[in-house]
Design brief:
It contains 12 helices and 10 strands. The structure holds 5'-O-[(R)-(carboxyoxy)(hydroxy)phosphoryl]adenosine and zinc ion (ZN).
Length: about 350
């Protein structure tokens, strides 16, 4: 029986190693994060305005042994607790993914542990089940199904319909930029540093979200797909035509347009599918305006609402541990130990 998983995450610009224990049952699992070490490479990529794959690879190679020491405390006895190793194999930047895979393969061989190839977006999905302090009720016990999950990150924007904790169907996804990518690009237009999400959030707090009429792309189309590149272009034109534009108003209006599209589509899906719960995950789920809007919308409709506690929205290894446990619980085969840029979840 696999109870403690050591998880490794290197798909983009965060290096993570975590130790995650699973208790409970397949339908009501509980995850305890015993260790969660993380190094962000943001500073190394900032001067380039985005993630550079070769720099990501170099930084992962540098960080992994240090994080492992931090997690194991250098104690040989640590390995007696570890039942399996999980590693993100897709989707992500292939050179970055390979560093994690090679590192995890070496560890698995050296310590004689099974190695579980894991899907990064399943990590985001199941980050909603992680807890900071174990409470009376596990997050998995507060959810009823069907549920609608919205996953919003730097590379993906997707809506899933979940029949249970272990089965889902994709309802829609972005046709161009992911919403996190739109935040990052609009931030660049506003001369804000990478990553743009937290910067726009901060600037938007002092702006008027109704100041500028920006488009809500695809909000009222009868499908669950998204498109954010037109919104970014509308911001570009507004700044070009209004050189003295108030930057806080631009940030607030952009954020309002993006959130309102996500909110409209998410709750329409929830209505049409007769959902009982809503899940929100991914790096953009760190956005306080988005979190409170979806929490409020869910409460108004009497839907249960789950989102990861704050440190687990953006990339981390704890969520990879949770996803590896979930795959084991539903009897899914681990993914091949091969880096792949894009793989449907
Ligand atoms: O999930 P994640 O860490 O990496 C990917 O798998 O892509 O997501 C990163 C994205 C970036 O685009 C970043 O700007 C965005 O999440 N992000 C935010 C916030 N924090 C991070 N977007 C909006 N508001 C935030 N507070
Ligand atoms: Zn991610």
């Amino acid at each position: 029986m696999i109870r403690n998983v050591l998880a490794v995450e290197t798909s983009c610009d965060e290096t993570g190693i975590a130790l995650v224990e699973q208790t409970g049952t397949a339908e009501a699992p509980r995850f305890v994060v015993h260790r969660n070490a993380l190094v962000s490479q943001i500073a190394a990529h900032r001067e380039f305005g985005g993630v550079v794959p070769s720099i990501a690879k170099r930084e992962h190679i540098r960080a992994l042994p240090l994080l492992l020491d931090e997690v194991t405390g250098g104690e040989p006895a640590f390995w007696e607790r570890v039942d399996a190793i999980a590693v993100t194999v897709c989707p992500g930047l292939e050179p970055a993914l390979w560093t994690g895979i090679t590192f995890a393969q070496e560890l698995a061989e050296r310590h004689g542990k099974p190695l579980l190839g894991t899907h990064h977006m399943q990590g985001h999905l199941y980050s909603t089940l992680l807890e900071l302090e174990p409470g009376a009720k596990a997050p998995s016990e507060t959810l009823t199904f069907p549920a609608i999950a919205l996953i919003v990150s730097g590379g993906h924007t997707m809506l899933l319909e979940m029949e249970s904790l272990h089965s889902w169907k994709k309802l829609g996804e972005t046709r161009d930029d992911a919403v996190g990518e739109a935040y990052d690009k609009v931030a660049r237009l506003l001369d804000l540093p990478y990553p743009g999400g937290p910067e726009i959030q901060k600037l938007a707090e002092s702006g008027d979200p109704r100041a500028i009429a920006l488009p809500r792309p695809m909000a009222h189309e009868k499908n669950y797909d998204f498109s954010f590149s037109g919104l970014k272009t509308a911001v570009l034109y507004h700044l070009r035509d209004n050189p003295g534009a108030n930057r806080a108003d631009v940030a607030a209006s952009f954020q309002e347009a993006a959130i309102s599209v996500l909110e409209t589509k998410l709750f329409r899906a929830a209505d049409e599918c007769g959902a009982a719960s809503v899940l929100l995950a991914g790096g953009v789920a760190a956005n306080s305006a988005l979190r409170s809007r979806l929490a409020r919308g869910s409460a108004e409709r009497s839907l249960a609402f789950a989102m990861p506690p704050m440190p687990y929205n953006t990339d981390n290894a704890a969520m990879i541990g949770a996803a590896a446990h979930m795959a084991l619980l539903r009897g899914a085969d681990p993914l091949p130990l091969e880096a792949r840029g894009r793989v449907p979840m």
